[in-house]
């Protein structure tokens, strides 16, 4: 699949406003500031398709990007979770929209879960894995910002995450990634192509 063809379609605040639930989509989830939007830009080889920021909480809507000539294959940039400065009521509301989307979006074929390689598997990440497990949704984890670690510690983090996810190994895969250095793109494309063909 040619991911470079990605173009913005629409932003939706919640499930009810999402585009028609047909075709296939892959969503990018993870904590605030983990690097979801940057990963979408790296994978689509576009500089500013998804808006990135040093300020956590940049992405506040569910953003849809279509691939190729129709809107049947989509990438979805989800708002980050766990951002401390957001008021509690807003956090709760967003968490319920996220859970709704993850539980009830039939066209969702797989979840790319971004984690900073230096701080993997937060409580929120585990909650998300449990949500995915509830509906047997496959998850591919990108341990991103791998450029921030030397090769040895990066590999050690990968091995540790793999061990911690042993109970989910049928549904969950994991790799090192860096949007900055464009590391791990081919490994991610292989998973995404498989999901998009489903
Ligand atoms: P929210 O939309 O706020 O949830 O954040 P996000 O997960 O979309 O993160 P975003 O892509 O906006 O990136 C957050 C910050 O991390 C930015 O300053 C990026 O430049 C930086 N960043 C993202 N990916 C990488 C990476 O692979 N390496 C390095 N060194 N920095 C990265
Ligand atoms: Mg973002």
Automatic annotation (TrEMBL):
Keywords: Cell cycle, Cell division, GTP-binding, Magnesium, Metal-binding, Nucleotide-binding, Septation
EngB-type G domain residues: 22-198
Gene3D superfamilies according to UniProt: P-loop containing nucleotide triphosphate hydrolases (3.40.50.300)
Keyword Nucleotide-binding: yes
Coiled coil: none
Superkingdom field: Bacteria
Names of required cofactors: Mg(2+)
Protein family according to the UniProt entry: Belongs to the TRAFAC class TrmE-Era-EngA-EngB-Septin-like GTPase superfamily. EngB GTPase family.
NCBIfam families xref list: GTPase_YsxC (TIGR03598)
Function field: Necessary for normal cell division and for the maintenance of normal septation.
Protein name as annotated: Probable GTP-binding protein EngB
Organism of derivation: Salinicola rhizosphaerae
Highest classification ranks of the organism: Bacteria, Pseudomonadati, Pseudomonadota, Gammaproteobacteria, Oceanospirillales
This protein's encoding gene: engB
